[in-house]
Amino acid sequence: xxxxxxxxxxxxxxxxxxxxxxxxxxxxxxxxxxxxxxxxxxxxxxxxxxxxxxxxxxxxxxxxxxxxxxxxxxxxxxxxxxxxxxxxxxxxxxxxxxxxxxxxxxxxxxxxxxxxxxxxxxxxxxxxxxxxxxxxxxxxxxxxxxxxxxxxxxxxxxxxxxxxxxxxxxxxxxxxxxxxxxxxxxxxxxxxxxxxxxxxxxxxxxxxxxxxxxxxxxxxxxxxxxxxxxxxxxxxxxxxxxxxxxxxxxxxxxxxxxxxxxxxxxxxxxxxxxxxxxxxxxxxxxxxxxxxxxxxxxxxxxxxxxxxxxxxxxxxxxxxxxxxxxxxxxxxxxxxxxxxxxxxxxxxxxxxxxxxxxxxxxxxxxxxxxxxxxxxxxxxxxxxxxxxxxxxxxxxxxxxxxxxxxxxxxxxxxxxxxxxxxxxxxxxxxxxxxxxx
Length: 437
Fold this sequence. Notes:
Blueprint: H1 2-9, H2 17-47, H3 52-74, H4 78-98, H5 106-109, H6 111-121, H7 124-147, H8 159-226, H9 232-247, E1 251-257, E2 263-269, H10 271-279, E3 283-285, H11 289-297, E4 301-303, E5 323-331, E6 334-343, H12 351-396, H13 400-414, E7 420-423, E8 433-436
Antiparallel strand pairs: 1-2, 1-6, 2-3, 4-5, 5-6, 7-8
Helix pairs in contact: 2-3, 2-4, 2-8, 3-4, 4-6, 6-7, 6-8, 8-9, 8-12, 9-12, 12-13
């Protein structure tokens, strides 16, 4: 029964904390004032025995204002409830003061409560506004009483009823101050909680900035180390090793696109799993799995929870994988390979990891291009050195037989042939032929 009563008189929940505090205040004041008005009415009827018109003028307007306030609170019209409680009630109390003896009426003293409520629920400017209006109207009442224009009191106010009105005002003021203090304490607690949250957010931001700076520094260190490696297998091995160590990933590997551009061949990986996959020439078709998807779209693929993504393909050699990110390695807009990292913690990879991996992938692309250029230049230099050596040997030969022998031997070595021979045509007009098998 008590719970139902509390549920009935309680205001509805508001999303904003400040609105909720205002609703609680108005709701409590409306109920307390309503109960006081009803109690004063009952006591007045028993003690003073007023007429029906007297009773109607004294209590009904106040009760209507309070009921309207409660209705507005429950229909989430909080601003309207504030205005109804302040201004109509202020007008009703002024009218009751005017016909109840002017500023000497106990009703006039209750206007102080309305001023306080206006300041809290509507703002300081409204409190000042109501104060100025009250002073102005009170001054008019004083002038009216001095000139004899003020009507005689329409209400008989026995001492007991007067004392009851004063007690009701004191109770209302006490309730109001208690609510103010409680709301102030709640506001301070919320400010304290907000400050704590702000400090936590600030600490988190500082931590993220530090981690980001550290990660960028590590990425720069990795890139600087890779720039000195010109051998492609050594480069790829260094990449996967350095990235895993620098960022504490569970597994890192690199795939290179085959010549037919149909599949991605594993070119390097970390740990025993990486060596096994490399030995078995592990391949992923383009468009299959997370690696194949990244290759097909040429866009990074981030999966914080691999079990929640149907594209993910498990690998028995990597049973602890929980998150994965695949980043394309692009050279001049063309796909060269995929840098793939895996983490053994769900949500262990985020967009910041992808951003860093893209930075490293661009450096890997430059490194692969440099390694390829270096290999081409080295092969070309070796080829030219071999040609120059053959030319020197031919120039040093003294007979046609020596020339032909040098040509056959050297070409056989260059082309790695099992047999090399020179065929001469006996006809004077025919040309000689060199056959290499």
